[in-house]
């Protein structure tokens, strides 16, 4: 009797294990067909959109796709961009004199404030005074913002080095004479390196992979051309045939935003891949720059603040090092420090868009500041539902499906209204 009972238990355990394996295997396989279906539907829908666009507008890419007759007017912006290295040179001279104690700390800080402020105001004045293309203005403003951030990091880091040298030399072991190096070579390398945080040395790779570098350059050309094609063939016709989103029919505005969301999302993804994956890695490879953490898996972000921590690592590290942590060290609460960080980011987003448009409606500024309540909302949803998909879907919906198309429509129609009133 005991032998039969034992045999029955063993058989039941066997069937339980078999059932568990079957259930696990079913869970693994259950969504594979649906994923394939989603891919097929995505290809079909996008193919229909491509055919519909070609039937309605024809091929809009002409001979002026890569060059334009108005590009001659952009020469002042090019000269301004080429003259931006004057400001790092001035910052280096200030630091050199500070190292030799030719100036007081107050004078050094004042001069750095003047230099960094001039490095951002100079391009703004050039763009506003010249009748240049929007793309040229955006490019110049992005370069100017990068120079500004690098100069802030350079001044801040050297200030910390001076304070460290002063504390070591005045300490108990005063016989140790600690000094830091102000080198023009290190500054020059920092200004072209794909990083925004200054330090005396960086990790370096052993050599340049020429074959890999050539493949990345080819990809960069392809994806840059793809971005331009999508903008000319899909985004421009939709925007030109639309109304102002805050005027007219609400359903029509929603339809325009949703119709713009797909091509703008593709352009956004191509821009991210071209800039953060291709261009920054190309620059790092040429300079043998070893720190290649330019982004993390931001597409899996569960909350908005997690996205901002993951998608642009050079800017995130700069914000943490030169804005967030200094605020905390000065007794500012974490929430206020986060608001200050978003405020600085919003100001520079507004400069990069409003100045080339010559239109200050603060749409970009408000869009970035609106991220703060979205941070609170996505954190609440994540904590309430304990599901990563809820926050991730909210992020994609507000950021890429609604936010960017709305911003494009607002700036386009405001620029057109300004041009119409001025003419």
Automatic annotation (TrEMBL):
It is found in: Endoplasmic reticulum membrane. It is a multi-pass membrane protein. Keywords: Acyltransferase, Endoplasmic reticulum, Membrane, Transferase, Transmembrane, Transmembrane helix. Its main location: endoplasmic reticulum. Pathway: Glycerolipid metabolism; triacylglycerol biosynthesis; Lipid metabolism. The chain crosses the membrane at residues 21-45, 75-94, 106-128, 134-152, 217-235, 265-287, 336-356, 362-381, 393-413. Pfam families: MBOAT. It comes from the Eukaryota. Belongs to the membrane-bound acyltransferase family. Sterol o-acyltransferase subfamily. PANTHER family: O-ACYLTRANSFERASE, STEROL O-ACYLTRANSFERASE. This is O-acyltransferase. The gene is LOC107005263.
């Amino acid at each position: 009797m005991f032998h039969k009972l034992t045999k029955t238990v063993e058989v039941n355990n066997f069937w339980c294990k078999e059932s568990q394996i079957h259930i696990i295997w079913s869970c693994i396989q259950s969504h594979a067909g649906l994923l394939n279906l989603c891919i097929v539907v995505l290809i079909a829908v996008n193919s229909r959109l491509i055919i519909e666009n070609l039937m309605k507008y024809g091929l809009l890419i002409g001979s002026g796709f890569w060059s334009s007759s108005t590009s001659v007017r952009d020469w002042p912006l090019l000269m301004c961009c080429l003259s931006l290295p004057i400001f790092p040179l001035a910052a280096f001279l200030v630091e050199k004199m500070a190292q030799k104690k030719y100036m007081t700390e107050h004078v050094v800080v004042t001069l750095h404030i003047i230099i960094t402020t001039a490095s951002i105001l100079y391009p703004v004045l050039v763009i506003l005074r010249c009748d240049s293309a929007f793309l040229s203005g955006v490019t110049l403003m992005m370069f100017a913002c990068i120079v500004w951030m690098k100069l802030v990091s350079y001044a801040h880091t050297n200030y910390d080095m001076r304070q460290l040298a002063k504390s070591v030399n005045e300490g108990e072991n005063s016989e140790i004479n600690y000094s830091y190096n102000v080198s023009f070579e290190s500054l020059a390398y920092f200004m072209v390196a794909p990083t925004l945080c200054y330090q005396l040395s960086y990790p370096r790779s052993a050599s340049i992979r020429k074959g890999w570098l050539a493949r990345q350059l080819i990809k960069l050309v392809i994806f840059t051309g793809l971005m331009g094609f999508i903008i000319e063939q899909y985004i421009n016709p939709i925007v030109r045939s639309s109304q102002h989103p805050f005027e007219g029919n609400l359903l029509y505005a929603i339809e325009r935003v949703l119709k713009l969301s797909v091509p703008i999302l593709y352009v956004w993804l191509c821009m991210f891949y071209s800039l953060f994956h291709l261009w920054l890695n190309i620059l790092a490879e040429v300079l043998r720059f070893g720190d290649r953490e330019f982004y993390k898996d931001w597409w899996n972000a569960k909350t908005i603040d997690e996205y901002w921590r993951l998608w642009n690592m050079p800017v995130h590290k700069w914000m943490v090092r030169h804005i967030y942590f200094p605020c905390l060290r000065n007794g500012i609460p974490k929430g206020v420090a986060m608001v200050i960080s978003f405020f600085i980011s919003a100001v520079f987003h507004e400069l990069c868009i409003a100045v080339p448009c010559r239109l200050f409606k603060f749409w970009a500024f408000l869009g970035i500041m609106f991220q703060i309540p979205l941070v609170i909302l996505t954190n609440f949803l994540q904590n309430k539902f304990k599901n990563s998909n809820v926050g991730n879907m909210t992020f994609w919906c507000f950021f890429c499906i609604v936010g960017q198309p709305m911003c494009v429509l607002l700036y386009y129609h405001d620029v057109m209204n300004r041009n119409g009133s001025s003419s």
